[in-house]
Protein 1
Amino acid sequence: MPGRARNISKPRGRITAYAFFVHAYREEVMRTAPDKSYAFSEFSRKAADRWKTMSDQEKKPFHVMSDRDKARFEEEMHRYDPSFMVEKKRCQRRRKDPLAPKRSLSAFFWFCHDERPKVKEQFPDYGMSESAKELGRLWGQADAETRQKYEIMAQRDKERYHADMAAYKKIAASQS
């Protein structure tokens, strides 16, 4: 399924009086206190409060700028040709060969394979994320002997995977 088409020549939307004000207010704040930085939400709140307290006379220059930009936008829309569309490309995911060998599991995944039923039994109301957190906590608390057991299982699985992959590549090469 291809991506949605978009028009690259479409005019940029018109700018509101408030947007012009915010831009000017940001420049004013940067001039008066260049070393101070505000979080976006804090700055937005301050700008909105300032805009609300301004008189119509103080807002007038921003409305004039907005009206000019509205005229620019309308002029560009009259010249705009919507037939010039560009198709966006989608990333093509490589399809996984169903005959390819299954990847090897890490020591942690082997641990989860054995311990998940115990966690589910102990905490039946846990969802996937809570179970995963509990398994991670248990893995972090596991002693060296337990970890070693699962490291050996992971190593054996890794060797199995490499052997299966070599055989798979050999078969794939002979078929092509």
Protein 2
Amino acid sequence: MRRYVAPAGGEPSTPCAPNVATCGDTPYAHPLSACYKRTSSLHRHAMRATRCTTPRSFTDHLSALHAASDVDGVRAALVPLCRALRQRYFSYRGHFPLPGDGVALPRLGNLPRTWEAQYERRRYAAVDPVLALAARQLTPVEWTPALYVSPQARELLREQRAAGLRAGITYPVFTPSGASGTLSLSSPHAPARRLRASGPHAWVLHAGAMLAMHVHEAVWRIVQRDALRAHAPVLTPRERECLQWVARGKTSWEIGRILTISEHGVVFHLRSVMRKFNVSSRHRAARLASDYGLLDDGPATVSSHDPGRSSPPSPSSPSSPSSPSSSSSPHSRSSPCAPSAAPPEAPSMQVQALAPPLSLVTFGWPDPRASCTAST
């Protein structure tokens, strides 16, 4: 336990309070002094402001942000993230170049609707000094009154404070591809000046910058996907099925067996797809279709005719496409020396089409090769 040593001469060592003691050469406040009470109050305020934010909870919310499939999902994931940073409002504005001369300008946020309508109606974005400064630097821009110099900017400051946006920070984000964006976090309560250098305000500065990069990446991913789908060629259901099986490594013959169409039909559909994508390879067309999101539904269930999955058809199965019917002739296969006379009645047991010729003799049928030899 520390021992309180009164300063020599009875003079206080600091002008903060008369009840300041020293421990060695370091002065500190007595637990009953006014200086200690003020310092303890600031410390409790800082701890209370950041008690709901931990690195683990913040990371969990970031993972939910990247799992969003559309802009509405990103907006919903931003609500708990802003709450963790002790901010009530957020607003994201993006500028993404698209293939060709297109540009995507996504907007999302939870600002008051009346203020959003007023901001767009009066075109405050053209006179907003925060956006102008964020376009020229990478560090966060705090909404300080010193930035609002022009009469239009001062009017903007008064209007946004009246709408409940008294304090805010804007984080600029730039990517090498030319895309840019800004994430603004605002609150109706201005932070205490004594807490701006450290404590919850410093946490907002650092964590908000990381949040801006994650939001920009999530929105950019969604914009790219939607833009690709908008410019994707239109495929017929049969063409999409053929591409799905090409992506799984099937050949034209195997795809024909799976879809119960001819091999020439599969080649016809794949050539049509390659013309639509302007490529010379079916695998390149399948890759582009996957990038466009046209194969997201996945291929159909593998049927019993899939040569890569199913077992060989049973010889006793009458519905097998590889087995002839019980009334079919063994000479239906192409043979250069098939006898002209009709063969004897075939037995009831069916023979697989790809069975060796020895099985014909086994079942009591005449061997066509023997007749050919006799005729020669």
Protein 3
Amino acid sequence: MAASVQMRMMIQRSRRPFALTTEAAFAVEGVWLIKANFSFRKTVEGPLRALVNQARLAVMAALTRQALLGWGLGANTVRVRLKSGAHLTEFPLPGKTLSSNLLLL
């Protein structure tokens, strides 16, 4: 039986043009589920490409940290549920993805 573990990370800094929160826990035996919420702030200014790139890197780093925690606690599988505005998507996060993302941390 998997231990009931829930971890929450909040990455919200006033100078960032977006809000990003993550929390993770074992959903079922061996499955680590990361729930991430992302949104741009209403007052965001700047080149769109730069804002999207900054947000993408922050999301990848946050998901990588949470996934590493799950693997360390014995997860067999990591899944991500990402919500941005009204859009919700769920996808697996394979271990091979993590090794390429470690440079972000």
